[in-house]
From TrEMBL, chain A:
<dbReference type="InterPro" id="IPR000644">
    <property type="entry name" value="CBS_dom"/>
</dbReference>
<keyword id="KW-0029">Amino-acid transport</keyword>
<keyword id="KW-1003">Cell membrane</keyword>
<dbReference type="GO" id="GO:0006970">
    <property type="term" value="P:response to osmotic stress"/>
</dbReference>
<dbReference type="GO" id="GO:0016887">
    <property type="term" value="F:ATP hydrolysis activity"/>
</dbReference>
<keyword id="KW-0067">ATP-binding</keyword>
<dbReference type="GO" id="GO:0031460">
    <property type="term" value="P:glycine betaine transport"/>
</dbReference>
<dbReference type="Pfam" id="PF00571">
    <property type="entry name" value="CBS"/>
</dbReference>
<feature type="domain" description="ABC transporter">
    <location>
        <begin position="42"/>
        <end position="278"/>
    </location>
</feature>
From TrEMBL, chain B:
<feature type="transmembrane region" description="Helical">
    <location>
        <begin position="147"/>
        <end position="174"/>
    </location>
</feature>
<feature type="transmembrane region" description="Helical">
    <location>
        <begin position="257"/>
        <end position="275"/>
    </location>
</feature>
<dbReference type="InterPro" id="IPR035906">
    <property type="entry name" value="MetI-like_sf"/>
</dbReference>
<keyword id="KW-0813">Transport</keyword>
<dbReference type="GO" id="GO:0015871">
    <property type="term" value="P:choline transport"/>
</dbReference>
<keyword id="KW-0472">Membrane</keyword>
<dbReference type="GO" id="GO:0005275">
    <property type="term" value="F:amine transmembrane transporter activity"/>
</dbReference>
<feature type="domain" description="ABC transmembrane type-1">
    <location>
        <begin position="100"/>
        <end position="279"/>
    </location>
</feature>
<keyword id="KW-1003">Cell membrane</keyword>
Length: 361, 295
């Protein structure tokens, strides 16, 4: 298979905000004793069969850059919700390190950990996790209350964030009076109100209807453009991952099998599992020009941005006399050019080896 | 074959000396520590007497107004309020006012005592499975052991009077509030608890900000049960010298006074219904946020 070279979206490389190193989580009676077997290469099914221990996470290494949206994607049982709960230690790892802003989370005592949760990380949950006995406003104030902010200031800030997520006027209602989408907006407002730099979102939009889900994704992206938080977003939905992720890590059976730029995952899937995964996506919408640009080439058509989707670029390429257009990055630096043929080629879904076997047998 | 047809029981002599030994040691224990234990419960006795005197010393119209006000505050229902005023008027008119006040006093004090002891125990039980495993069988014993079995040692220790009566009532009436506090806290949604934890709530903040508020409907069901069970104990408590509506009922049994028993019995029922309606509608109002459900 051809290896596609992806032009980076921007070349600023940040220090990782959150860094996960050699993280293992084994569920069972004697998880520590199983560690050597897992390190020795024993997989999830064998460990279950032979010892009755469930392998939750297997040697996770992930650097999460600041001010970006890191998506962690996997099907149910892949360990993604377990992984995100390690970041604020709602679940204790069996072994490994977690660093946030250069501090070792595993070495924190109870008080330091509480402060980490209070001031640095806030979380949005799949099932919302709202306090049913408190009004919308009181829910949005919850994190601030725990921080020790005065009631008056907490109210002002909570009202502001409720307004930002489109819930002005709902302050005095109870969560049970709201729809699912509205409840999750409360969850989002509660998490944003604390001003934490890191936002953990555990399948935050998975329980919502498809339309409301895209709606919430837009709200999140809109807010992110202004807030530049470090967001760690868990999902099982590839479209959602591609829509919002600056980086995507794909998890299977507790292992990261591919991690990086979404374009890289679409263009260069690491194995058949991922190829299968991305087979049904609408490539015209998700593949960007920067993924198919030919370095050094030029074109006669209109100058296009590297972040443009194939769908948007198609009519412009069609208009160009020689069927190719020059491409520039965000800052206007030339990246090369794309051709109509190259674009059509990129629309073709990558094939797995299994497909080849079927075809040639 | 004698071994199989006859159970190998302890000999009559040994059994007798075993029972005697237990009786003797308890008797000497109560002789040695009786006064101290009595002194320990003295403040409770004083409070009970003070409360009873307060109820009896206050002019009856004021008592009825206070009861009406409390009923209104609890139930927010005109029907229940008027109903309880009428019930108290009839009770007074039929000459049971003093006994009713005495019963009201002991049930109220017992309820307060059970709440003060029961809720913390319930919380402890909810926090640790081991505590739960230890306390549950104790509660089982408290609820099922025949009342007379523990009435006897209580009387041996403290004599006949208000305090042993109060203790007997409390032993019987406390389990529901302990059980339901424990259950209520354990039933609090795990997702909500996790959310509170993710925002850095300390265990105190989780207890008072999330667990207890969300367990309140269950805790209130426990309070309601405790009151009902306390009321059902007043007749037995009157056997060991607790004044109140139970006394006339007891007399009516031994003397076949049908009307006396019926009247006092119905007065107990009236009290029970009033307590039940008020505490139930109060408990319902506590969870008003649940009722306005959204599809």
């Amino acid at each position: 298979m051809v290896k596609h070279e992806i032009q980076p979206l921007d070349d600023s490389i940040d220090e990782p905000k959150v860094s996960i190193q050699k993280l293992y989580k084994i569920f069972g009676d004697t998880p520590e004793a199983m560690l050597d077997r897992v390190r020795g290469g024993m997989g999830k099914p064998e460990l279950m069969d032979q010892t009755g221990h469930a392998l939750g996470l297997n040697n996770i290494n992930l650097d999460i850059p600041a001010r970006k949206i890191q998506v962690i994607m996997g099907l149910s049982g892949s360990g993604k919700s377990t992984l995100i709960r390690h970041l604020n230690r709602l679940i204790e790892p069996t072994d490994g390190e977690i660093w946030v802003d250069g501090e070792d989370v595993m070495k924190m005592d109870a008080k330091e950990l509480r402060d980490l949760r209070r001031f640095k990380m806030s979380m949005v949950f799949q099932k919302f996790g709202l306090l049913p006995h408190r009004t919308v406003l009181e829910n949005a104030m919850y994190g601030l209350e725990i921080q020790g902010v005065s009631t008056k200031e907490a109210q002002q800030r909570a009202v502001k964030w409720l307004d930002r997520v489109g819930l002005a006027g709902f302050e005095e209602q109870y969560p049970s009076q709201l729809s699912g989408g509205q409840q999750q907006r409360v969850g989002l407002a509660r998490a944003l109100a604390t001003d934490a730099e890191i936002l953990l979102m555990d399948e935050a939009f998975s329980a919502l209807d498809p339309l409301i889900r895209t709606d919430m994704q837009s709200i999140l992206l809109e807010l992110q453009e202004e807030l530049h938080k470090t967001i760690i977003f868990i999902t099982h939905d590839l479209d959602e991952a591609l829509n919002i992720g600056d980086n995507i890590a794909i998890l299977r059976d507790g292992e990261i099998i591919q991690s990086g730029d979404p374009q890289d995952i679409i263009m260069n899937p690491a194995d058949d599992y991922i190829t299968d995964f991305i087979r049904d996506i609408n490539r015209a919408k998700v593949v960007r020009l920067r993924s198919i640009v030919k370095k050094g080439a030029t074109g006669a058509g209109e100058t296009l941005r590297g972040g443009m989707s194939l769908e948007e670029a198609l009519p412009k390429l069609h208009k160009s006399v020689d069927g190719s257009c020059p491409v520039v990055d965000k800052k206007g630096n030339p990246l090369g050019a794309v051709t109509l043929d190259g674009l059509i080629d990129a629309l073709k879904a990558p094939e797995t080896e299994a497909d080849d076997e079927v075809r040639y047998s | 074959m004698e071994f199989l047809s006859e159970f190998p029981a302890l000999g009559r002599k040994d059994l007798a000396s075993l029972k005697q030994g237990i009786d003797e040691s308890f008797r000497s224990f109560s002789r040695a520590y009786g006064p101290e234990i009595e002194a320990f419960f003295n403040p409770l006795l004083k409070f009970l007497i003070w409360f009873e005197k307060l109820l009896l010393g206050t002019p009856w119209p004021i008592v009825i107004i206070v009861i009406a006000a409390l009923t209104w505050l609890g139930a927010r229902s005109v029907k229940v309020t008027i109903g309880s005023v009428i019930a108290f008027l009839i009770i007074g008119f039929l000459g049971m006012w003093e006994d009713t006040m005495a019963t009201l006093a002991i049930v109220s004090v017992c309820t307060v005592l059970c709440i003060a002891i029961g809720i913390p125990i319930g919380i402890l039980m909810a926090r640790s499975d081991r505590t739960q495993a230890i306390i549950t069988p104790i509660l089982d014993v408290m609820q099922t052991i025949p009342v007379f079995v523990y009435l006897l040692p209580v009387v041996m220790l403290l004599g006949i009077g208000k305090v042993p009566g109060l203790l007997a009532v409390c032993i019987y009436a406390a389990p529901p509030i302990v059980r339901l506090t424990n259950l209520g806290i354990r039933l609090v949604d795990r997702d909500v608890m996790e959310a509170a934890e993710s925002f850095g709530a300390s265990s105190r903040e989780k207890l008072f900000g999330v667990q207890i508020p969300l367990a309140l409907p269950n805790i209130f069901a426990g309070v309601n049960q405790t009151i009902m069970m306390a009321l059902s104990m007043v007749v037995i408590a009157s056997m060991i010298g607790v004044k109140g509506l139970g006394g006339p009922v007891l007399r009516s049994i031994s003397n076949q006074y049908l009307a006396l028993g019926l009247m006092n019995g119905l007065a107990i029922v009236a009290l029970a219904i009033i307590f039940d309606r008020v505490s139930q509608s109060y408990g319902k109002r506590l969870q008003a946020y649940r009722e306005t459900g959204h599809g």
